[in-house]
Amino acid sequence: MTEKSFAQDESTGGSLLVEGRIVPVPFQAGNPTEANGLSLIGLGDYRVRTRQPTLVVWHWDVCLGAVSCHRVLSERGLSSHGCIDNDGTFYQFLDLHKHRGWHAGGPANRPSIGIDVSNAVYKKYQPYYTKRWGPRPEITAVTNGRKHSLLGYYPAQIETAKQLAHFLEDYMSIPLKTPEEANTIEKPERFKGHIAHYHITARKWDVAGFPFAYVLGQEENYNV
Predict the structure, then answer these.
(1) What residue segments make up the domains of the chain, in order of their start?
(2) Is the CB of residue 109 less than 8 Å from the CB of residue 55?
(3) What DSSP character marks residue 161?
(4) Which of 8, 14, 175 is closest to 85 using CA atoms?
(5) What is the per-residue pLDDT across 20-53, written as a single tens digit (0 to 9) for each?
(6) Exposed, middle or buried by CB within 10 Å (0-12, 13-18, 19+), for 77?
(7) Which of 75, 115, 170, 195 is found 20 to 30 A from 56 (Cα to Cα)?
(8) Which of 154, 21, 151, 136 minimizes the C-alpha distance to 89?
(9) What's the pTM?
């Protein structure tokens, strides 16, 4: 693991749990050891791992917020490593290094960190979002040859995703790269970098329309 020091802005900074250590980060984040945190340690289905992860699998939670995402995962015996809430706050559920979550199915769980982006996806939920955080972007996207029309991502969520991805590169050496096409790939568990759930199986379409190029620093601007 690469040892680095990360400056923390008191107004927006938070901390993450990595290999049992609390690491300050310069974005809104809460780790599972905090009193007001959201933890799946001892609740969801996960295992202890000894090898450093090399892969990030991105999901959406199809929930209305991080609290409901946490509840659904614990009730279903599943686990991701955290969820980016509607306001951009990242709520960590498991240790990013020590815990192997159950989020991607099969071999892809072993080397990966699973990150949920809170998004109920379906346009019928737009009034709910509009009342609380403002309207979500409405987008179209294609995954595995299928076209989708859905609710997109709040800019605050995308900015946190970008900072989190760069933290994982700096601190855990996970490369800032992703497959070129929005299709399943062979042996996704061997990919080193960032993939969507739809890269693992065509049965899934999360996270359709996710701006990987911007999040991973390959494009300068995030265009909805």
Answers:
(1) 14-215
(2) no
(3) H
(4) 14
(5) 999 999 999 999 999 889 999 988 689 999 899 9
(6) exposed
(7) 75
(8) 154
(9) 0.94
| Residue 87 buriedness (CB in 10 A; 0-12 / 13-18 / 19+) | middle
Two structure tokens written together for 123? 């346009």
For residues 210 and 58, the answer to whether their CB atoms sit within 8 Å is yes
Given the DSSP bridges, would you call strands 55-60 and 193-196 parallel, antiparallel or unpaired? Answer: parallel
Q: Based on DSSP, count helices (H) and strands (E) in the chain, helices before strands.
A: 4, 12
Q: Name residue, tokens 């938070």.
A: 14
Q: Which CATH number fits domain 14-215: 3.40.80.10, 1.10.630.10, 1.10.10.10, 3.30.1330.10?
A: 3.40.80.10
- 125-169 pLDDT, tens digit each: 999 999 999 999 999 999 999 999 999 999 999 999 999 999 999
